[in-house]
Amino acid sequence: MKKIRILNIFLGVLWEWVIIPILFYVVFPTGEKFQFLFPQNIIIKLLVSLIYLFFGLYFTISSIYCLHVFGKGTMMPNDPPQMLVKEGVYSFCRNPMYLGYSFLFFAFSFLFENISFLFLSFGVIIFIFLYSKMIEEKILLRRFGNEYWLYKKETPFIVSFKKQKNPFYIFSTFLFLYILFSFIKAIFLIAIKQ
Q1: CA 164 – CA 145 distance, rounded (Å)
Q2: Higher-confidence position of 1 and 180
Q3: Count: domains in the chain
Q4: Does 52 fall in a domain?
Q5: What is the CATH number of the domain that holds 128?
Q6: Which residues does 44 contact at the CB level (< 8 Å), separation at least 6?
Q7: 82 SS3 class
Q8: d(Cα 39, Cα 45) in Å, to the nearest integer?
Q9: Range name among 60-64, 101-105, 149-153 with the lowest pLDDT average
Q10: According to the model, what pLDDT value does residue 15 have?
């Protein structure tokens, strides 16, 4: 069982952190056409990339850890958590892994100056909303009943605009909003250039 869990974690991380980024980088090269969307100062570009990379890795690694330790499972469908995870990053966000992936893809967009990753980052946000609201939350409500309903009531979906005490979470909310702003800005700038 432990070997299967480790394999599931490895495959999930490989898919999300390596295969998807490489596919997007190769299949959707943007070249110099959209470089105007990114800061030309290398220090700013690296700083933005590193901040989002740090938070993306923090949220995804912490999520994997919490699912394994507190939930006795993984993010993979063939080895789901056996218990509802409300500890760690799941205590202030119901979807920290998706938030982490979104941050990672946003970091890649700056690092590689590839607008495809910006769209992927925003796509992850849309996917989270649609998949979680339409499918995943119903499954979790069936599996964990009232415990999940109370957790859902107390814990924000992705970000909360209520007063938060955790400065890490407050900064993450800012980063999330910056992704949305960047996506809107990119659409606007592309429309103007056409």
Answers
A1: 27
A2: 180
A3: 1
A4: yes
A5: 1.20.120
A6: none
A7: coil
A8: 6
A9: 101-105
A10: 78
Identity (one letter) of the amino acid at 134? M
Q: Contacts by 77-83 with C-beta closer than 8 Å and gap 24+?
A: 78/4, 78/8, 79/4, 79/5, 79/8
State the average pLDDT over residues 120-145: 84
**Residue 86 pLDDT > 80, yes or no?**
yes
Q: How far is CA 17 from CA 29, 54, 95, 141, 142, in A?
A: 18, 13, 17, 29, 30
Within a domain: residue 57? Answer: yes
Residue type, 79: D
* Residue the block writes with tokens 């605009």: 161
The alpha helices in the chain, defined as continuous H runs, are 2-14, 20-27, 42-69, 96-112, 115-131, 137-144, 146-154, 167-193
Task: Kindly give, in sequence order, each residue whose CB lies less than 8 Å from that of residue 110, ignoring residues fewer than 6 positions away.
Answer: 38, 39, 45, 48, 49, 52
Residues spanned by the domain of 51 = 2-18+37-193
Looking at residue 151, its amino acid is Y
Domain assignment present for residue 110? The answer is: yes
The DSSP code for 74 is: -
Asked if residue 23 belongs to a domain, the reply is no
Nearest of 108, 110, 101, 106 to residue 158 by alpha carbon:
101
Lowest model confidence (mean pLDDT) among 20-34, 46-60, 119-133, 155-169: 155-169
For the cut 80, the answer to whether the pLDDT of residue 53 exceeds it is: yes
Helix (H) or strand (E) holding 36: none
- The pLDDT confidence band at residue 145, using thresholds 50, 70 and 90, is very high
CB atoms near residue 126 (< 10 Å): 9
